[in-house]
Specification:
Blueprint: H1 13-32, H2 70-79, H3 83-96, H4 99-106, H5 116-127, H6 130-140, H7 145-158, H8 161-172, H9 179-189, H10 192-203
């Protein structure tokens, strides 16, 4: 978490190399497990196939299968003035939502009520569809560090090819204030090309931010 600051400082080359090496090693381990492998209760680093284009995708559950109605959830989201209820509904939409939910949640990404904007952004990341990633990319391009950090983290949850490409670009950009956030989000995506990116980061002299 970047705490609203213009980024998380990396204070030394040693710390940077340790962080990227750990991320690379962790991702490599879970990649080596292969599809269906890994350890029960392991961190959310995707197990990669031999294809470098493979990325982890969110488990999609039809709302009806859980006895829910996406239409009704969206109506509650839009109607409620209670931040706790809005956050709870947003979390549900993150698991069962479609494009309609992305549009509704996008309207809350600048909401000033405590926790609402962050919950909306996270839910969009969990939906993980192409339009969800497009919405997150729009926030990443915005001016507010706090909102950008939330969107970058959510891209790690979306884990599409477009999300991975954006995170890789941010992680390799020495002038990006939220570079560290992007690196950790990239670790959530996983894949062999992500390992290559981590190796590149570990071998590159990082300029302290």
């Amino acid at each position: 978490v970047d705490g609203g600051q213009k980024g998380t400082a990396v204070t030394s080359l040693g710390k940077w190399k340790i962080a990227t090496a750990i991320l690379a090693a962790t991702t490599l381990y879970y990649a080596s497990q292969g599809p269906g492998g890994g350890v029960s209760g392991a961190p959310g680093v995707a197990a990669a196939s031999h294809s470098t284009s493979n990325v982890r995708r969110q488990l999609r559950i039809p709302a009806a299968a859980l006895g829910m109605s996406e239409v009704r959830l969206i109506a509650r989201l839009q109607r409620s003035e209670n931040p706790r209820e809005v956050i709870a509904v947003a979390q549900k939409l993150g698991y069962v939502g479609t494009g309609a939910s992305v549009r509704a949640l996008s309207k809350l990404t600048q909401d000033r009520r405590p926790g609402v904007a962050a919950a909306a952004v996270a839910a969009i990341g969990h939906i993980g569809s192409d339009d969800a990633v497009d919405a997150l990319l729009g926030i990443v391009d915005g001016p507010t560090a706090r909102h950008r950090a939330a969107a970058i983290t959510a891209l790690g949850q979306a884990a599409t090819g477009a999300a991975r490409s954006e995170l890789t670009k941010l992680a390799l950009d020495k002038g990006e204030p939220l570079r560290t956030t992007a690196i950790y989000a990239l670790g959530e995506v996983g894949g062999r090309d992500v390992i290559d990116t981590f190796h590149t980061l570990a071998a590159t002299r990082a300029r302290p931010v």
